[in-house]
């Protein structure tokens, strides 16, 4: 009798728990990081904590390979099958918002106070997405290399001038000590080109599109500053200061550690292998080509879809996920930049005195978003093609004019993208 009573009590308890679980509203979340075990462990932990913290919503993750993620979202949008929560690469967010895939993010503004600007995705003066990290690029070299060739160590306050940078590359090349004085990462032919090389154009005073009106690239991608940038860009390859477009990815990934390159233009996600290889690595700001030293900003961010029937619940999850302890956890796990000073102080790589602290400072001081427009998707492709063609020997003016024509045709075809 006692056993029967105990069994009945357990059954009632189980039924109660099952009823509570079934009462939770399920929120689906799509993520681009399939195959990354570290990211998955951290994100799954955040989801579990959120699900355990309340009884109204239950988030369920579905992960996709990064290479096919965007196509999956577009296909789902066309079929009307978007999830409740999704992540989006920062520069693509305006296109998805304009296309109707996303809706504004209703979270407490106090929750994002003090965040790095690059992790906040806005379109038409409304917040649509928030990132759990940012990324930054630096001129990475060894202090012993700078000392050997008597090259000044630049600072945030006083970066290399265009003349200093050019003289440093020429001096290193003349030594014959390296296959190339500088690695730009020409092997990485995706979003790297506009993200990493766009800041050089901006520093010359040009851009991919007129950011005041967003209605044309004429005069900004083929004006005098842009032409000066193009001439400099072409000269890097003509003078064999950098590897060309035939560089393979292994050479980009390992060339600096192997001693093939004196300086590498790369992101904080590559910093740990460099620090493991050398004890005198320095991460330096981009050169100032006349309009200031600049780097790219904005990485992957969380957003809510236009199709979710529970925007408040989806926003609750995102607001839960951007707690400093989770921002620090992602930073510790994948090496990217925490979006707040508080999270940076909690992290092992970006805390005061930590080896990658400088990247937070670079992101805060120099980070600049790629053009915030739905047309960026086409602008990025046109810019990448122009830079590839110029590196392969094309005429600078012709290549930039062709890019302008492609961008302006796209803007006109889309009736100005709502700007």
TrEMBL record:
Signal peptide (from-to): 1-23
Pfam families: SBP_bac_8
GO cellular component terms given for this protein: ATP-binding cassette (ABC) transporter complex, substrate-binding subunit-containing
A Gene Ontology BP annotation from the UniProt entry: maltodextrin transmembrane transport
Record's keyword terms, sorted: Plasmid, Signal, Transport
Matching InterPro entries: SBP
Any GO molecular function: maltose binding
Family statement: Belongs to the bacterial solute-binding protein 1 family.
Annotated protein name in UniProt: Sugar-binding protein
Provenance organism: Paracoccus zhejiangensis
